[in-house]
Structures are given as structure tokens and as C-alpha cells.
DNA sequence: CCTCCATCGGCACGTGTCGTGCCGATCGAG
DNA sequence: CTCGATCGGCACGACACGTGCCGATGGAGG
């Protein structure tokens, strides 16, 4: 009797999870517009107090809802090929960013964050920092294996990589397609890669590297 | 008697300019919050109709107001040193982005653009594209003078350069300071620069380039 | 099993903005 | 001077905000 969603009446704190799911559903169906506390309350058949008791603002609710579905998008694979791993991850992330549940909510949070420095800090700390750190970890490993040059300031590199994707998503009409990602990665590898494949103007000084096979 | 701003009563189309100035003042004083059509109308002592007759929405008004003060921030100098010119321009732009009249308005437009794809397209076309193009022009010139490698895809480079600045401004709590700009430019020059100063791991193959003088 | 109290859904309020409609005053061109 | 477009002012209904109060519901402690 614990999983008959027909008329489970009401509960204590498990209602929190239900409200988050309702928020995700609402975002997926009606998008950014129509994302309001009143709408969530109506949709969930819930008094507004039930929401305000848990989250101080719509933005806080959206942040928690976003956590529910965004966490799984942060793991880079490590096949030993940074370029390939970054490419795969960027493709996955950009697809998630553009898709229904995550896309509208992320947009809504970012929009509200423009009006509220505190929210902006929270958003940065809980999501963007995490994304950058995840990227930094992967490329730092690549640095250790010699795929990237040792002297590179990879913190900036991670920020540039992530920032470019978000920039295109937020302020551009262009999609984040394979073209964009390849261009971005070409620049990244040209700057920090040790392979000579992409650095046409700077051939190896001697018979050091016959360019793979 | 055309320039006594004491009580010029009312006018025809010159009122448009006055409304734009009021919008800028309002943004400078009260910031993002309190930027509403009603607020502008109240501040200007104007009926809301007078605003709605000229702009279909607050966002459209903000776009025009932004044009008034943002246009002057797009000219790159050309001293023959790309790195220096980009650095100077980025410093100027980031300072403008963070300062009162432009900062809040830009933030407001971007926030509203998240809810309206059409507005996003207009914003991209009228501002971001222009910024990117201006950057692209400058680095293309640098490519022609040999400061940058010939094979580089500079369109992506321009997008990455501008995008990183906007990303930090919109989604980060970190300021766009000299550190950030230098890190960004280091990556850019490492990827596309022909000088060997920053490319430690890839020395010139022979006596081809004794490093400038 | 029953009592008690935190939590619930529902309703209402006052505030603020939105976009629109209508009014009479004001202006500027003809 | 006339007349029509534009003006400021006011009001409206709709919507979301955040808060307050109500009676009921239901789980924890006795």
C-alpha cells in the first residue's frame, strides 16, 4: 500500500520529493514560462505554504530540482584519450542542457540569478564550480599522462571549456553541435596538447615523433 | 527655447530619446530590480501608453537603451600587438559590463532572453554577434600580419574569447580581472600565436626564427 | 487504541506589474 | 484657427507574490 499513487492522501517529508518531481514535470511540459510557485502548487494539489515551508523562493526550489537530474551528467570517462573523453562529455552535457527537464529549469535559474547575487553565488558554487572541477580533474589527469603540456594553467582552461558551452547555450541561437565542440577542442588541444597533429606550424625539431604510424 | 529642460511640456518623437535616457538613469540607480515599464513611466512622468506605443515590451526598450551606451565599447585598437590590443579591449569591456548603466541593463535583457527565444535571437544578433565580429576582425588582421598562425579557425576563437568573458560575468562570482584576462589570452596565444614565447614545449625546429629581433 | 499537535489543503488578503481601454487636455501641422 | 494625433492620468481584469488564518488530516507518543 506504500506505492499506490492513486490517492496517497498526504505525507510528511516525502512530499518534498514529490514536489521536486512535479517541478520537473512542469518544466518539461510548459517550459520556462509558467514556472511559478503557484503553478507548482496547483499542479501538485498543494497549498502554497507547503512549498514555502521547504524553499524560500522559486529559485531555491529550482536549484534542488536541478540537482535531482543534473548530477548524473558530470562524470567524464577516462579512456586515455582526453580529446575523445572531452568530446563525448561535451556532447552529452550540451544535449542535456537543451532538453526538456534540465534545459528550462537551468534557464529559469540563470535568469533569476541575474537579479540576485546571492543566488548567483549559490548557482555558481553548486553547479558551475562542480562542472569546472570535473573537467579540471579530467584534463589534469591528461597532463599527468603527458597528453597535455606540463606548464599549462589548466584551471583557466577548464573555465574556458565550460564557459564557451554555456555562453553558446545562453546567448546564442547557434546549437552546441559537433562542429562547435570540435572547434573548441581544436583550440584547446592546439594550446595545451603535446601531440603535433593539430599544430601544423610547429613541427617536431627532429626524428622525435614520426607522427604515430 | 528648444533646450530648456525645465518644463518642456511634451513633444513628438524626441520623447523617445528622453525615455531611453530615463531608462538608463533608472538602471544606474535602482539596478536590475525595479526595472519595469511602470517604473520607467512613473520616473519619466509619462503614461504607460507612451512607452507601449514605441516598444512592445520592456526587453525591447532595454535593448534600445543598451544600444545607446554599448556601441562605443566595440572598437579595438590596432597597435600591431594583438595580445596587447585584446587585453586592453577585454579590460574595457569587462569594466563596462560590471558598471552601473550597462551592467544592470545587460543582465536584465539576458534574463528576459532566457524566457523568449525571439528576444534571444535579437540580443545575439544586435550585440553578441557584433562583439564577436569586432574581435574576429582584429585577430584576422593579426593573422594577416603573421602574429597568428594561418590555419587557425578564428571564428571559433573569437567566440571562445568573448564567451569566456560573458560566462564569467553571468554565472560566476569571480570578477573579470587582469588575472582572468591574462589566463584567457595565454591560452589563446598558445593555441594560435606564432611567437614561441609562450610555447615552451615546442621550440622552433632550426634557425628559422631567432625570436623576433 | 486514543490523544495531541505538527502538518496539511484551501481560501483570502494586500501589493505589485502586466497589458489594455477610455478620458479630456495639449500639441503641432495644415 | 482648426482638427487630428499624441499626450498624461486613471482604471480595469488578470496574474504571481508572500503571508495569514482556518478546519481537517494523520503520524508519533502515551
UniProtKB/TrEMBL annotation, chains A, B:
GO molecular function: DNA-binding transcription factor activity; transcription cis-regulatory region binding
Signal peptide location: none
Residues in the DNA-binding region annotation: 36-55
Keyword terms, alphabetized: DNA-binding, Transcription, Transcription regulation
Domain HTH tetR-type: 13-73
Pfam families, sorted: TetR_C_11, TetR_N
Domain of life (superkingdom): Bacteria
PANTHER family reported in the protein's UniProt record: HTH-TYPE TRANSCRIPTIONAL REGULATOR RUTR (PTHR30055), TETR-FAMILY TRANSCRIPTIONAL REGULATOR (PTHR30055:SF148)
The protein's name: TetR/AcrR family transcriptional regulator
Amino acid at each position: 500500500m506504500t506505492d499506490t499513487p492513486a490517492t496517497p492522501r498526504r505525507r510528511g517529508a516525502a512530499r518534498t520529493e514529490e514536489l521536486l518531481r512535479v517541478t520537473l514535470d512542469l518544466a518539461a511540459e510548459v517550459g520556462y514560462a509558467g514556472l511559478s510557485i503557484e503553478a507548482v502548487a496547483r499542479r501538485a494539489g498543494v497549498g502554497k505554504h507547503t512549498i514555502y515551508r521547504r524553499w524560500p523562493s522559486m529559485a531555491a526550489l529550482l536549484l534542488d530540482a536541478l540537482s535531482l537530474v543534473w548530477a548524473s551528467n558530470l562524470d567524464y570517462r577516462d579512456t586515455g584519450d582526453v580529446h575523445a573523453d572531452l568530446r563525448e562529455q561535451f556532447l552529452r552535457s550540451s544535449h542535456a542542457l537543451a532538453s526538456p527537464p534540465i534545459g528550462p529549469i537551468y534557464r529559469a535559474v540563470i535568469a533569476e540569478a541575474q537579479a540576485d547575487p546571492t543566488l548567483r553565488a549559490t548557482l555558481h558554487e553548486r553547479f558551475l564550480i562542480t562542472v569546472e572541477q570535473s573537467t579540471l580533474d579530467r584534463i589534469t589527469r591528461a597532463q599527468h599522462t603527458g597528453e597535455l603540456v606540463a606548464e599549462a594553467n589548466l584551471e583557466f582552461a577548464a573555465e574556458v571549456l565550460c564557459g564557451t558551452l554555456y555562453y553558446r547555450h545562453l546567448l546564442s541561437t547557434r546549437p552546441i553541435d559537433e562542429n562547435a565542440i570540435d572547434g573548441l577542442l581544436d583550440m584547446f588541444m592546439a594550446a595545451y596538447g603535446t601531440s603535433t597533429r593539430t599544430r601544423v606550424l610547429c613541427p617536431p625539431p627532429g626524428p622525435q615523433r614520426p607522427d604515430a604510424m
